[in-house]
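Protein: HEAT repeat domain-containing protein
Species: Floridaenema aerugineum BLCC-F46
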Amino acid sequence: MSNFRLEQISAQLDSDSSRDRMLALASLRDVPANEAVPLIKKVLDDENLQIRSMAVFALGLKQTEECYPILVKLLESDPDYGIRADAAGALGYLEDRRAFEPLSRAFYEDTDWLVRFSAAVSLGNLKDPRAKEILVQALESEEVVLQQAAIAALGEIKATQAVDQILKFAQSPDWLVRQRLAEALGHLPHPKSIPALKYLEKDPHSQVSIAATISLQRLGQ
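Structure follows.
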């Protein structure tokens, strides 16, 4: 991208209009990471929370060496739980296994369920087998969304040792939990996965039964 265009975006990011700053941030979508990240940093402390959220999300997609430490700092110290959750999610997009430790701390220590949810999802995105113990613990959460995230993530990291723990959700009253289970089992070749999927294939909710059919096909059934 030309220097002139980058200067235009930079000036727009300094605008008093939050709409202008938002549009400028959105226009960085096709800008190379090394040119975009310095501009994204300009609005990481923006007074508009939506712009801050967009900026954090963008750091997860642009992926320069600078992004990782910025996102970890936001995850660990930002006063806004939404921004901490965004930072956890962005770390998952980076797929940098260094994020295992900060995401694990966030899951154990953050007091907000949304941050813990984002941390669990991102631990799955990292595909790091070390996350198994944390995710199994998340299954015991009273927050249904955390159960959903943990089941999905255990599938992502291919934790076949956790099949027994997730199968107890086959009769969950929440259809999204059952759908996540059906999807996860498709990544877990285990003697108990096939019969469980055949059971879920008869689920009264179409999304669950479709997910079970797809997973059975993935497992060669």
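Remarks: DSSP finds 14 helices and no strands in the chain.
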